[in-house]
Amino acid sequence: MRTVQVHLDDRVEMRKPHPCGGRTWRIVRVGADIGMVCETCGRRVLIPRDVFNKRVKRVLPSQDETATGGVS
User: Fold this and answer.
1) Which domain of life, per UniProt (predicted)?
2) Where do the domains of the chain lie?
3) In terms of CATH architecture, what is 11-67?
4) For residue 71, how many C-alpha atoms fall within 13 Å in the half-sphere facing its CB?
C-alpha cells in the first residue's frame, strides 16, 4: 500500500467528491488520523490515515507556491 506524505496546510484532491461537490481539501491535522477541511463548504472531517491513503488522488501545490510561481 502506498503512503502519501502530507503536512499541515497542504491541499489534496480526493477521488470522490464531497456531497457539496468539492474535491479539494486542506490538511489541518496530521497523525494517526488526518484532519481535513473542505475548501468548498468548510466542513471538517477526521479520517484514519489508512483510509486517507486509499482515498487521496493527489497532493496539490500550496496556494503560496502558485502565487510565487513555486520560487521560495
Assistant:
1) Bacteria
2) 11-67
3) Roll (2.30)
4) 2
Residue with cell 481539501: 25
The most distant pair of C-alpha atoms in the chain lies apart, rounded to whole Å, by: 35
Q: Are 39 and 26 in contact (CB under 8 A)?
A: yes
Phi first, then psi: give them for residue 14, nearest 5 degrees: -95, 160
Q: How confident is the model at residue 4 (pLDDT cuts 50, 70, 90)?
A: confident
Is the torsion defined by CA of 16, 19, 22, 27 positive or negative? negative
User: Per residue in 15-49, pLDDT tens?
Assistant: 999 999 999 999 999 999 999 999 999 999 999 99
Kindly state the cell numbers that stand for 62: 500550496
